[in-house]
Design a protein that fits this description.
Layout (H helix, E strand, L loop, with lengths): L20 H12 L6 E6 L5 H13 L1 H6 L22 H8 L5 E4 L8 H12 L8 E5 L7 H12 L5 E8 L6 H4 L3 E4 L5 H8 L3 H10 L4 H7 L4 H14 L7 H11 L5 H18 L9 H6 L8 H16 L7 H13 L8
Parallel strand pairs: 1-4, 1-5, 2-3, 3-4
Helix pairs in contact: 1-2, 5-6, 8-9, 9-10, 12-16, 13-15, 15-16
Amino acid sequence: MAIETPTERTTNPDECYPWLEKQRRQWQELRQANRLPHAVLIRGLAGSGKKALAHAMAADLLCEQHRENGPGQAGANAPENDALASACGACSGCQMFAAGSHPDYHVIEPDGQFIKVAQIRQLTQNLSLSAHRSGHKVAIVHSAGQMNTASANALLKTLEEPTRDTCLILVSDESDRLLPTITSRCRLMPVATPAAAELAAWLGQDSERVQRALILAGGAPLYARQWLEGDALDRFMAFLNTLMGLARAHNSRADVLEVAQQWQDEISDQWLAALSRYLVHLQALGQGMCRELSGDRALLAQMGHSAIETDHWAQKLRQLAHLRQHQGSALKKELLLEEFLINWKTTPHAPWP
């Protein structure tokens, strides 16, 4: 099962993932105090829910009940005594927003590999006009780190000369590189990831199982949720157990080739990235540096005394990096996997029988 890029948008505009409620609340407090910045940079791991947060923040600004009843209030649809209520979901503004037809809401996403200068210039022109609904004008720039030099400079001009009642929400992965002149003109809103217990409570799943999924997902909760769907996690752990079992001396070359044939259709770059993360977890466990999950000791036991050797783990991770590097090449996938498994098997501690 391939782990795809998760949808980071909840069903309703006034919903937000529970681990993002702190940031949502901060935004509502700024709106309540009439201290909204003209630009916000939401930054965090891919799969952490940044897009859903940006969507919810835009919904809050475009709700017309807030405007009619004063800052921070959402009229009859607001929770009783909640001065920081979210978008009401019922007014004309909310209905147009939910339908994707709000005239004062603009979304920019990469066109191919980059956000192009023409997209930013069109956005600047749209934001220069008066609001159609006499409220805020809101623009979300997704994957802001994918602006090329020309588009970044064009956006910088907009940030330097913001128009009235305009809010730009930039969304960026942690690894993205944005111009310092852009980040310095935005209010930074970092997105934290939830602890395993919090995510387990939200998903209604066993905490240890969720912890394992978070390791595979690199800490990203929405990717972890995908690992927990269906049998993806169980299939991966079965592969990992098979892989670790290849360190046993009684496995022959024919056994290795059989494993390659069995798993070649399952292996994707997401699986290999997850494998790399779990190997690092096992290395840390073997050196007494992290919490043990059920079954981890049995996996380490299959590697014998090499489980505590730093050079051994470095060798395995290099072999895995080589496989990932050539996954998209013209080389046949089956041959690449066979090479990886043969190299994995061939160690000073486990000669061919």
